[in-house]
Amino acid sequence: MTNLEKKATTLREWIIRSLAASGSGHPGGSLSAIDILTLLYYQEMDITLNNYDQKDRDHFVLSKGHAAPALYSVLADKGFFPKEDLLELRKFGGHLQGHPDRLKTYGVDTSSGSLGQGLSIANGLALAQRLDGIQKKVYILLGDGELQEGQIWEAAMTAAHYKLNNVIAFVDNNGLQIDGTNNEVMKVDEIGKKFEAFNWNVLKAEGHDFTSLTKAVQKAKTLEDSPTVIICNTFKGKGVSFMEDQVGWHGKAPSAEEAEKALAELKEAF
């Protein structure tokens, strides 16, 4: 097991603990996205506790804000706030809201949760970097079900029009959303062809394979003139056998017994 794989497994444990303590939240999409966040925060992005208050750094937008437990686990591990705070997820008076709030949680670049808005925000950050002469990137994580939102495609058109090659988007393509499969609710395939039609660079990666993800990100960093999207094949609930590819775990927190079972599985991975 590589260092990144070990880190992602540890972060999965914190996701399960925080959701079990909360009694509500979204495990499925948090677990499907955590490998992408692990790669970005521990290898690819220039975002640290030391440079966070500076302009000259990368930015990250979690557009699928319901995956907040994944982002919170990373930020706590990186030292932005105490890990013990993760057990206060969604608690009254706590700073870890059900969806990220940049005014409450240090380390959150963008408040999110109302799906479809994140790419527009990423465009704004990217344009601001250009105006300030900053040679950094804006990374954004989208849900595949989120692509059903029309604002995404308005923002996609905008990013291409302004040639925002500093925007690198990831699609957590797990095929499921709260009401069923994407194909049942509102078919979004072929995702790559849609972005190509909007003049984006399109790459693909296996979303739980760090070698595949690394190759895609490194390639994206070299592309010029257009924004890039990396479509990542993932599994809802990845890492916990009874949650994997199960739509029912989109927005249901594990019970104490279920959490214990999940944590035992994750410990076996080591």
Could you characterize what this model shows?
The chain has 270 residues and is α/β, with parallel strands linked by helices. The protein has one domain: Thiamin diphosphate (ThDP)-binding fold, Pyr/PP domains (Rossmann fold), CATH 3.40.50. It contains nine helices and seven strands; from the N terminus they run ααβααβαβββααβαβα. The strands form two sheets. Strands 1-2-3-7-6 form a five-stranded parallel sheet, with helices on both faces. Strands 4-5 form a two-stranded antiparallel sheet. A hairpin with a 2-residue loop joins strand 4 and strand 5. Helix 2 crosses helix 8.
> In which range does the helix fraction lie?
40-55%
Summarize the main sheet: 5 strands, parallel
Taking pLDDT < 50 over at least 5 consecutive residues as the criterion, the unreliable ranges are none
Question: Could you tell me the mean pLDDT?
Answer: 97
Number of helices: 9
Number of strands: 7
The structure class reads: alpha/beta
Domain unit count: 1
What overall form do the CA principal axes indicate? globular
What portion of the residues fall into strands of 2 or more residues? 5-15%
User: What is the CA–CA distance across the termini?
Assistant: 8 Å
Instruction: Examine the secondary-structure arrangement and name the CATH architecture.
Output: 3-Layer(aba) Sandwich
**Under CATH, the topology is which?**
Rossmann fold
The string of secondary-structure elements, in order, is HHEHHEHEEEHHEHEH
CATH superfamily heading: Thiamin diphosphate (ThDP)-binding fold, Pyr/PP domains
